[in-house]
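Re: the multi-chain job from yesterday

Posting the exact lines I submitted so nobody has to dig through the queue logs.
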Amino acid sequence: MLSHLLTIAFEILLLILAPPLLPGIINRTKAWLAGRRGPPVLQTYYDLRRLWAKKPVISNTTTWLFVTAPWLTLGAIFLAGLLVPLGPGTAPIHFTGDLILFVYLLSLARFFTTLAALDTGSSFEGMGVAREIAFAVFSEPALFLVLLVLVKIAGSIATGAAPALSSPLAGLSLSILLFPAGHGLISARAMAAMVLCAMGLFVVLIAECGRIPVDDPNTHLELTMIHEVMILDNSGPLLAAQIYGSSLKMLILAALLVHILVPLDRGLNGEFTQLWVLMLIGLPITGVIVGIVESTMARLRMKSVPTLLAVASLLGAFGFLLLVG
Amino acid sequence: MLLIILLFSIVLIASSGLPAMAFRRRSNRGQILTTILLTAGCAIGMGTLAAYGLGERRVWHLVLPWSTPLGRPAFTLDALGALFLLPIFGISALGSAYGIGYWPQTRNPANGRKLGIFWGWMSAGMALVVLAGQVLVFLAGWEFMAISGYFLLTTEDSDSAARHAGWIYFIATHIATLALVAFFILLHLIHGSLVLWPVHLSGTPGSLAAAMFVLGLTGFGLKAGLVPLHVWLPGAHAVAPSHVSALFSGVMLTMGVYGLVRIAGLFAQPPLWWGITFMALGIISAFLGIVWAMAQQDFKKMMAFSSIENMGIVTVGLGLAEMGLTLHQPILVTLGLIGALLHMVNHSLFKPLLFMGAGSIIHATGQRTMDSLGGLAKPMPRTFVLMTLGVMAITGLPPLNGFVSEWIIYLGLLHTTVEKSSLSLIAVVAVMLAMTGALALAVFTTWISTCFTGKPRGAAPARAHDPSGFMLVPMAILGVLCLLIGIVPVLVTPALSSALAAWQPDLRLPAITAILPLRSFTLPILSLLLLCVAAWMVSTIWRRRTGNFTNRTGTWDCGYAMPNGRMAYSGASLLQIGARLFRGIILSRRQTPDIRGLFPAPARFDRATPDPLLNQLIEPAANRAGDFAVAARAIQGGKVHLYVLYIFLILLILLTCMVFAG
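And the result, structure tokens for all chains:
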């Protein structure tokens, strides 16, 4: 009981403190690959502190929505994070069907960001929003397919030695999907499916967090960007909330990715330290991989982004077909 | 006894528009009296429903001692019917109150009283459909609803577009009636009785039942607006006054759903293809509905297409329940039907809210085109807040009611893919539903932001204002209900559970609260609210304390001075990427100007999005049939000796037949 509470406390702490580390690691990797020294790993923390102390500049065109939306976005993402188990055992909040809530909380965050962006009445923001909402039409099914594959795998494992679940649908929870009870071995097919859906999820992560090759986090040129242009008019604490929120989103999706990719997870049910070690190594490694991808690839043309996301959906779909056949 | 009170309330609702005839054409008093009578009728009806007890499993019957060729008129109320009566009474009363502000008699002397009369008739007709305990009563209520619906939507009968849409509606609704008459004849053949609900047929359904299913699906599907039977719907919703659109979309479409639910419950062991048909029709309607909504400039039409989408989602849930019956999966039955019914209830809350909001915009600006509006959040702050709630509800975002029902349906779909390996392709439905959700978010984000945020795009919004209390209070009630069901879904689960029990009384179905943590569901939602409020408060207080609150200036314009509202991204440009990706489905006709040279001549860009089915398939076919009919008129010469010749010819033919047959 005490260890359970400790886990949850540690998870929440990680969720609050760790996110800005990921952009730091990515930038450091990019700098290292480009032969530069680069900003310190903790740079995002410094940026957030600086922004928090700044006086925000707010457009006259905006309404109450513009000031509240960054906090609502952040709140929605944070709640989505509370549904994802970071360490061993369960997430701080878990219940039957929370995986759908997870997807929709990310949608909620998107809703507020886009609405606040359009609240400024600027065409630059409009461009970003147009892209964001169009690409979401493809990234959301991809994320859904990834979750479907997980549901299917967990279902196939649980049938071996059916544990006493409180209700027949209790398995439809992120906390249980990622640590399915029961001792069925993971078949080679399921392994392959997991690899496919991890690849799909990686594409979704890139798209959702606005990284190259979908979006460029460094430029402010309106023709080439999505997320950055939507928060163009945010400043001070509002911008801090947006930056922190998007890094939090990356942490959550990366944690999901680590859970899927480390098949040991499922054998280590309840082994406290090993899982924490895996997660604490896995998250920075994900950051490094994102950094390597950013350094080695050019940004795609906007027209090709739906194709990339469709590929992510297809990866998930193939994973699903592997489990069905 | 209580059923008699319910019938009395229906009579009161039906006659609510009549006293207004005695008042002057330009006086508001008659309209207010109409609303008071109607609201009283609805309140009595609601009170009776409360006395019925939505948690009860009783069935009330009342048979009138009148003799008709089709037996005695009978009325029935079971829990399923009671659930469908709720939106009829609720939306009818709220819409009528809204009408005092939106369609005042003083400004509409020509058609205000007509609207009042048919509003009452339509509400009464719909209540009669639900209360019908016998085929005759059902068809009478159905026709009452259909015909008064025609007069409601052609309220502005001087407008040729309204007459055209009304005509299409009229044809469609009578095709539906035709199909339903045939459906009831077949039902009579199978069942042996004209007494309705609950009708439970035993045995395995044969080919007669299959024909009955198809006919019922056509009749009720036409009313619910399922693709490809939706052609009447967008036009009708666009031309009707907004509160009439609210009544149509929120209540009349659910009459189609009511019929579909009744058909789905006829057999305890329906064939698998029934469920698959429901699910396929549902997901196709949901997906195509929202894709077509993307191409609409008229936002009332856009909302009408979104109604098609939502009816599709309801039908997906129904298909799930039907499959659960076939496959002996009680959990699926519960998830599917509760999800479908809850989504129906939700849609009858948030869609009227959105239509009333659309009406408020039209009332304030006189504009129905999204791209000529903008910046209404400042002159209409209350409407903006309510519409934000409505948009969040319809796009299924937590913590509003739309999320809860979509959540239940999603879980049903996921559960099927896990439990039944042979039905794994249901996963396609789940993924398409996710895509539909993302598209709905795109469409409605675009709508609300184009209308409300940014700067005005034209001159009209300058005199915009929040509507009066008559319009605002009904909207606020609907908005609060959406939020309430979203946060505390257990408020409605007793009513839904007893409707489920009334649907299949012989089955032991698990309770929805036993399957899903609806009770504890409030926790994360509430924590989200608390979290956001806390974060915002902390930041505000902290800012106040340090003294440097905010600087205000213009939106960043990249150094170009004075961009105006017309230069901002419009609704069409926001949805352009999506519309281009789905251009094979939307089939817009565009006229792109040919721009050449350094100093091109003035050019014009046009885009029209006709309904592919209506304008390219049905209307040409109907015109062809009309031409044929005109050509056939030649045999009706109008000369007596010609007709004598016809009679003689027919006699000759008959005689020849007799001779050869004998």
